Amino acid sequence: MDQKNNSNQDDFSSPSETELDLLNSNDTSTKPNFRKLHKNVWAVSVTSFLMDISSEMVINVLPLFLSNVLGVRTNIIGLIEGIAEATSSLLKVFSGWLSDKLGSRKWLAVLGYGLSALSKPFFYFANSWRFVAGIRWTDRVGKGIRTAPRDALVADTVASDQRGLAFGLHRAADTAGAMLGLLISAFLVWRLQASDAPFQQKTFQTIVLVSILPAVLAVIALAVGTQEVKTGKAGSAPKITFKGLGKNFLAFIIIVGIFDLGNSSDAFLVLRAQDRGMSVLHILLMLAVFNLIYALISTPAGILSDKIGRKKLIVGGWIVYALIYLGFALAGTAVHIALLYVAYGFYYGLTYGTAKAMVGDLVPVELRGTAYGSYNAVLGILDFPASLIAGILWSGFGSWAGFGPSAPFYFGADMALIAVILLILWNPTPAENQALPEKV
Q: What number of other Cβ atoms are within 10 A of residue 250's Cβ?
């Protein structure tokens, strides 16, 4: 929007879904129109780009720091990652509800990004897995506060026929930031240690220091670049709820939940790469290429989902995921891992933004914050058993040594195939028949 023609941009009412669609009804072009996207989509995308530069610099080397420097086993790494995501997800319920309750989104998102930025410097002083866990969990608290209001802010400011484009663009910006962050980390590793050496504490601390600046800039970009969106206020208490969100939403959550139970933290993929003989520098370069593919695919996939439907893309993405995880289980060399990780970018690009766009399609506009909170919460809570199961399958528990590095990936492939079958069989009901019984 043009600033000089909108004097009250910082506080406006979100148009209804019907009004947004009517605004676009005269456009018969099938080409995506980036110029029609609201400035909030661009500002949120810039914010995610900057924050992911910071986060991915640190998070992707964190399992290597825990394993190589602190000597932590994979079951503990799974515990840390699982609790971190569960903590984040429980807060997404509250923050999503609160954004609906207040009828606004922006400042909750700013608060969440700010908390994550503040937590980053403390990684510099980490000297035990418990210290790392505390900082990691604090960072995830910030993510839990910001995610649902941010996603609702995007969904509120675009028409339904551009929602896939908006979330695809946001995901592409997010992933481009991740790629740049990984390249910066790779450069620092190349400069600070031998290429064949285990990951070192000094290298980790330098990466942490460099990561602080983009995190601060991300908070500033969101605070300055977005405008508040006023919506109708919801009055129910904060909770994981499906009441009023529809049977379609409930069915989608169940199917995605089954898939997510086998989708453990990507920390295990990093550790699998090192297990197959890949150096720290090559792991970071591999992750950068993964994020490049992810970024390149996300926006076209979002546009395609607007044209052919979200379900087809998600089914295709999950089939790719199952084959990739089977490949990780069978991989014998570092080259195999590298090729699989490139393909892994296609899975993320096809499904991540598309699934979020589908959530926006399935629920009423005034309950989108609650819906995104519930969606992220259910999946995040499942991330705890998913990562814990993966860690135990890999290295066991107590005196039991586990099944070895391949086991978590066989499990993930099996769960993905079950979810694919259920998603193919799922036939969403017409919108007017979605209401759930009052007892739900």
A: 17
